[in-house]
Automatic annotation (TrEMBL):
Organism: Rhizobium redzepovicii
Cofactor(s) needed for function: Zn(2+)
Record GO biological process: methionine biosynthetic process; methylation
Comment on bound cofactor: Binds 1 zinc ion per subunit.
UniProt keyword Zinc present: yes
KW ATP-binding (keyword) present: no
Protein name in UniProt: Homocysteine S-methyltransferase family protein
List of residues binding Zn(2+): C209, C285, C286
Keywords: Metal-binding, Methyltransferase, Transferase, Zinc
Residue ranges of domain Hcy-binding in the record: 1-300
Alphabetized SUPFAM superfamilies for the sequence: Homocysteine S-methyltransferase (SSF82282)
Length: 302
């Protein structure tokens, strides 16, 4: 088994745990507005738990969450703040180098592939890239539901001089868990997404914000696709802990409940399975906290 790089976990519930106020539709963006010190502290807790890569708290800094008016007036400053807080946390670490990944979210909503607007997407991504660039080591297009969203991220960061990772969210209802053919939430196949990634210049191809149960098949499919294409791309996973069907409501309409059965031990067992299948970058998404990351890091190191 190759050495695994450890990512951080989900930001929002750790913010809540430390006392930040979060409510929809702004969600984690509220912490940047009202309690930025808590954002920095969450980054530090993930680093203390063993994370080698932390992600900027810029996921909700899009009109879908904060509204068009606030994005135009305050978006650039909030994005810079998100980058600076992550950079400060990473640079305060003295025992090892911690990378900062600049989060580039789906501009028109999580799990909303039907809302993608190719003619408008670059205008918003440009604001994110320009204001995060001074602080980040790599770009992370995450929770993308269709290949066109990945291509938009590739185009947006092409002139930045920094490498990029692309992470797709997978269909994960009960029928999808039972299927042997993993697919994105758009219905596009993981094989097609991996083929696109192999020609995109991406340094890593990941799966995130889906149930742990659908991840191994996706990793195996990606690994086989890359093997056939002789493509040297890392594969990664950071699953969530959501209950029930996740695409039933828009991401800014409410708070998903999290699973009681997915404690740090259970999640670390999933992580070992993903590593066995070929994943070399592993962390957590929504509902996966610092305790999960600490446990999976210790387990994978053995």
């Amino acid at each position: 088994m190759s050495r695994t790089r450890i990512l951080d976990g989900g930001m929002s519930r750790e913010l809540l745990r430390l006392g930040a106020e979060l409510k929809q539709p702004e969600w984690s963006a509220l912490a940047l507005i009202n309690s930025p010190d808590i954002v920095r502290e969450v980054h530090k807790e993930f680093i203390a738990a063993g994370s080698e890569v932390i992600t900027t708290n810029s996921y909700a800094l899009v009109p879908f969450h904060i509204g068009e008016d606030r994005f135009q007036k305050e978006g650039a400053a909030l994005i810079r703040l998100a980058g600076r807080l992550a950079r400060e946390a990473a640079d305060s670490t003295t025992d090892r180098k911690v990378l900062v990944a600049g989060s580039l979210p789906p501009i028109f909503g999580s799990y909303e592939p039907q809302n993608f607007q190719p003619e408008r997407v670059q205008g918003y991504l440009e604001v994110l890239v320009e204001n995060l660039a001074p602080f980040v080591d790599i770009w992370l297009g995450e929770t993308l539901s269709l290949i066109a969203e990945g291509e938009a991220v590739r185009q947006a960061v092409a002139g930045s001089g920094k490498s990029f990772w692309i992470s797709f969210t997978l269909a994960d209802d009960e029928a999808d868990i039972e299927s042997s053919e993993p697919k994105l939430r758009s219905g596009e196949s993981v094989e097609d997404a991996a083929s696109w990634a192999a020609s995109s210049g991406a340094e890593a191809f990941l799966f995130n914000c889906s149930k742990p149960e659908v991840m191994r098949e996706a990793v195996e499919t990606a690994a086989e696709t890359f093997r056939k294409m002789d493509a040297q791309i890392e594969i990664g996973v950071y699953a969530n802990a959501f209950e029930g069907e996740q695409g039933a409501s828009a991401a800014n309409e409410g708070l998903h409940d999290t699973r009681d059965d997915l404690n740090d031990d259970a999640y670390s067992r999933f992580a070992c399975s993903w590593a066995e299948a070929g994943a070399t970058i592993i962390g957590g998404c929504c509902g996966i906290g610092a305790a999960h990351i600490h446990r999976l890091g210790k387990t994978l190191s053995r």
